[in-house]
Every structure is written in C-alpha cells, then in structure tokens.
C-alpha cells in the first residue's frame, strides 16, 4: 500500500479572510484572450492563429486597463504562442505599464481541431461521431482527426502547470490562454473530469485564479470579468 507523502495542511494557515491575496504563494492568474475577428468567430478555429478583432480591441480598452490594475506587477508572464493570446498580454501590459517579458509556452494553446480546424459552426455537428457537450462544440472524449480530445488537453495543461509550479514556487504567474485550455487548467486544479469542467464558463478577457500550496491545488476565482466601461461589442 502506498502512502500519501504530501504534507498535511493546517486549514487555518490558508484561510483568506481579507480583500487581498497573500504574497509568497504559487499562484496562476489565467486570462482568456480578447475577442477574435468576426470571420473567425463563425468557425471552429481552435489552434488556427487568428487575430484579435480590431474593433473589439479598441472598444474594450477599459477592460484591458481594468485587468492591468488587477494583475500583480511582480508576476512572471506566460502566453500561448497564438497571436490572439500574446497580443492580449501585450495590450494589458501597455495599459498597466508592465515591463516583464512574456514567455511563450506551447502547452497553454487551445484544443487542436486537427482536420476539422476552420469548419463553420453551422456544419461542424455533422462531423461528430458522438453527441456534443451541452456547453462545448464536441464531447470531452471526442478526438478530431489529427487533433486532440479535451482529455488530452487536460493532461498537457496539467503537466505544464505542475512543471511551472515547481520551477517558480512562491511566485505569481500571469498566463494568457484560451477558453478550453483554461477550463482544463481548472479541471486539473479541481481534480475533476474534463466533461465536468466544460460546464464552467470562461469568457473573453475573464480572469480565473488558481494556487498551488504544498502539492495541493485550490481555485480562488473563475471567470471574473474586468470593467468594460460603457463600451461592449
């Protein structure tokens, strides 16, 4: 019989009673990218490198500034290599006058749709071999030809989070990523199935926060929206 070697945590030591989060905790600030351009939004773009919508980028400047005010200035920054995530990070940094370099991390990219990439939403259901998830375009265990299932996305995201948590213990880390990928990060933290995590909502420019403490994960917030001001798309 194997024994659990993780330390026993004193719950009293990790209560968060005040309005601020304590420093010195391994913490990931997961930000979904901004709204992509209109034509791409009609398709299953997945890992296609589609750009942000220029009109939304302009209209949502208050939201980028709001995010900049929320994020810690001494954090490390990581981004999916896709331009919509990286540009979101640069826009937030410009709004908040951050100077930290953004490192690209391939494991934070979106679910690959493989041969189904770019398929219009209207015809996408005809390609599926299983019923789709009620809140995702395909089931968590459906694997597009040449692509990956959400089960596989959870595995790569989880491995990446564990690696960064051990490499940067005690640091804040901002991660610019994608809706499906962030759901799978939450699935890893919650130790729940990809199917269950797809019931969570992760909107554009939303912030979700998870922490890694002595080998354990906990969720601080999910889908917290910034202040968009009066301008919405």
From TrEMBL:
This is Phosphoglycerate mutase. SUPFAM superfamilies: Phosphoglycerate mutase-like. It comes from the Bacteria. SMART domains: PGAM.
């Amino acid at each position: 019989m194997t024994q659990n070697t993780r330390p026993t945590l004193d719950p009293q030591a990790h209560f968060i009673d005040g309005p601020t989060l304590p420093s010195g905790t391994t913490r990931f600030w997961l930000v979904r990218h901004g709204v992509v351009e209109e034509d791409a939004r009609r398709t299953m773009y997945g890992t296609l490198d589609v750009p942000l919508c220029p009109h939304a980028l302009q209209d949502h400047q208050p939201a980028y500034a709001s995010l900049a005010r929320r994020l810690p200035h001494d954090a490390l920054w990581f981004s999916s290599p896709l331009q919509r995530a990286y540009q979101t990070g640069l826009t937030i940094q410009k709004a908040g006058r951050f100077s930290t370099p953004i490192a690209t991390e391939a494991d934070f990219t979106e679910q690959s749709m493989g041969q189904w990439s770019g398929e219009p939403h209207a015809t996408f259901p005809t390609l599926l071999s299983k019923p789709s998830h009620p809140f995702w375009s395909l089931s968590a265990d459906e694997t597009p030809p040449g692509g990956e299932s959400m089960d596989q996305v959870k595995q790569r995201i989880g491995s990446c989070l564990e690696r960064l948590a051990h490499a940067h213990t005690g640091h804040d880390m901002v991660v610019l990523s994608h809706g499906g990928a962030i759901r799978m990060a939450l699935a890893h933290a919650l130790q729940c199935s990809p199917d269950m995590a797809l019931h969570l909502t992760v909107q554009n420019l939303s912030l979700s926060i998870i922490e890694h403490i002595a080998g354990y994960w906990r969720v601080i917030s999910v889908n917290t929206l910034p202040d968009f001001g009066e301008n919405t798309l």
